[in-house]
């Protein structure tokens, strides 16, 4: 059967008629009824089409456009509709079942951990985790290729300015923190390793020793 061709005048009349409140309500009701009465084959076909990258991008673009152009009345209407939706016991049970299945999937769990890490990093440092990894790499910036740590790297930052200094391993992070997070502390440690103990204090055997001054020290 050949497709019916409408004139511009007919299209304008149909568009104007569809904007009438009673016609919009009727169309919404018909769409809901058609959606609820879909056959398994139709559901599978729609789901397959929705998974296509171009269709997902199109749906996302339509959603962003609608959200950006909402009027205050539409915003209040969306809030009220969501509130009513959340009150429905059927919807509550459906949502609970959905999240139970979703959270039991290892892939989804890993995705959620990555999203949480990205969000937390952005909140703390003002820049995303992936962007920081792309800039500083996945090798400890302190140890370099000699790093022996098997733990994930940490984002190291200056505690005075908040600026990111790099990505370092747990051992380097603890060592820098234990030495006061200062260049002076590191230089003093270097002097000690080269044989220069702090002060002139000697032990009872006449040998120089490092005087530890810090938490838990009784010396």
CA radius of gyration is: 32 Å
What's the total count of β strands? 2
Strand arrangement within the widest β-sheet reads 1-2
CATH C-level of the domain at 108-181: Alpha Beta
- Which fold name is given in CATH as the topology of the domain at 108-181? His-Me finger endonuclease fold
For the termini, the CA-CA separation is: 98 Å
Q: Flag low-confidence runs.
A: 201-219
Relative helix content: 55-70%
Description:
This protein has 219 residues and is mostly helical. Among the domains are: 108-181, His-Me finger endonuclease fold (3-Layer(aba) Sandwich); 182-219, no CATH class. It contains ten helices and two strands. The radius of gyration is 32 Å and the shape is elongated. Residues 201-219 have low confidence and may be disordered.
Name a few traits of the molecule.
mainly alpha; 2 strands; two-stranded antiparallel sheet; 219 residues; 10 helices; disordered C terminus; His-Me finger endonuclease fold
In short:
The protein is mainly alpha-helical.
Please render the helix and strand layout as text.
Layout: H1 8-18, H2 21-36, H3 40-50, H4 53-68, H5 72-87, H6 89-104, H7 106-125, H8 129-136, E1 154-157, E2 164-168, H9 170-178, H10 183-193
Antiparallel strand pairs: 1-2
């Amino acid at each position: 059967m050949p497709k019916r061709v409408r004139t511009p005048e007919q299209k304008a009349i149909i568009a104007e008629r569809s904007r009438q409140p009673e016609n919009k309500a009727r169309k919404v009701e018909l769409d809901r009824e058609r959606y609820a009465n879909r056959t398994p084959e139709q559901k599978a076909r729609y789901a397959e089409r929705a998974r296509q990258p171009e269709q997902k991008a199109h749906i996302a673009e339509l959603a962003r456009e609608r959200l950006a152009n909402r009027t205050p009345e539409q915003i209040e209407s969306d809030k009220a509709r969501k509130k009513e939706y959340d009150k429905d016991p059927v919807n509550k049970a459906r949502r609970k079942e959905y999240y139970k299945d979703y959270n039991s999937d290892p892939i989804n769990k890993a995705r959620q951990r990555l999203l949480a890490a990205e969000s937390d990093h952005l909140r703390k440092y003002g820049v995303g985790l992936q962007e920081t990894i792309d800039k500083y790499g996945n090798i400890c910036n302190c140890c370099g290729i000699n790093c022996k740590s098997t733990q994930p790297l940490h984002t190291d930052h200056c505690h005075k300015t908040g600026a990111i200094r790099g990505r370092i391993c747990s051992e380097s992070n603890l060592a820098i923190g234990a030495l006061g997070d200062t260049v002076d502390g590191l230089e003093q440690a270097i002097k000690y390793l080269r044989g220069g103990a702090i002060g002139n204090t000697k032990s009872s055997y006449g040998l120089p020793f490092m005087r530890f001054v810090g938490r838990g020290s009784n010396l």
